[in-house]
Amino acid sequence: MIRFHLCTISFRHQLVSLPELATWAGATGFDGIELWGVHARHLLQQPGLDGRWLQSQGLAIPMVSDYLPLDGSEQEAIHYTRELCRLARHWQAPKLRTFAGHRGSAELDQRQRQAQTRRLQTLTRCVADEGLTLVVETHPGTLADTVDSTLTLLTDVDHPALGINFDVLHVWEAGADPKLALQQMAPWVRHFHFKNIRHRDQLGVFAPANVYSPAGSRQGMVPVLDGACDYRPLLDTLAGWQQSQTHPAPLDISLEWFGPDSYRVLCSDLHQLRQNVRQNHAQSQALAVCQ
Questions:
Q1: Of the listed 139, 170, 191, 193, which one is catalytic?
Q2: Domains in the chain, ordered, with CATH?
Q3: Angstrom distance (rounded) from CA 190 to CA 111
Q4: 134-177: per-residue pLDDT in tens?
Q5: Which InterPro entries does the UniProt record give (predicted)?
Q6: CA torsion sign, 101 to 168 to 132 to 110?
């Protein structure tokens, strides 16, 4: 089963309440809402809003997305991680998303890399103790900035509670073929982020300092199926997983839109992606009949 979710980070600069967003998401056809960590914390102050309430709206929260510290005090990092786990339990979210630090793999020497890997091991164990899964996002400027570095990180940590949030555009940005990269990372993939850009030379708009700024540029951000990164081969692979039950757990995909006119773009992207999934499923069934 493929489940599509919207991200509250898409509405980071808009005055939208969670009940309003949930009503729209359900009516539009989304399966759930990925909560940005800062939103998850502030919403604790609103009684009655939790994972159980969202389930009553026919929606789920698949993941709380935040940023665990891989440098600095280990005790403070463990405390932060446990607080984040508490948030996830409040929202009944089975996964926590983090970045693998804030420096690229080529910037770190072996000692620094080992230190960050050990820290990630420690925090993964904390998350596992709470019955949750920690997913590291494939992202530039982190230890998961290339396929090889990501695979090395996963192998070195070597814990079943650590997985990957496969951000398709960032994998493509690193020069890899997303479909081939997915085949290499498949055992660890627990979630997907979908977004796109008109031209490769515009990828800088997704730099955190620009994306999080209300005055940042949004030039080049386009709907998922309209950009320079071709999602169709990867969607074919996911449809094959679904058909063959190679990946029996639900395939969670969040549409991570950072541009303007969020409601319109997210609605259009969702309907186009669902149509693509239906077409792939119909083709697979037709081939099975012919065989």
A1: 139
A2: 1-288 (3.20.20.150)
A3: 29
A4: 999 999 999 999 999 999 999 999 999 999 999 999 999 999 99
A5: IolE/XylAMocC-like, Xyl_isomerase-like_sf, Xyl_isomerase-like_TIM-brl
A6: negative
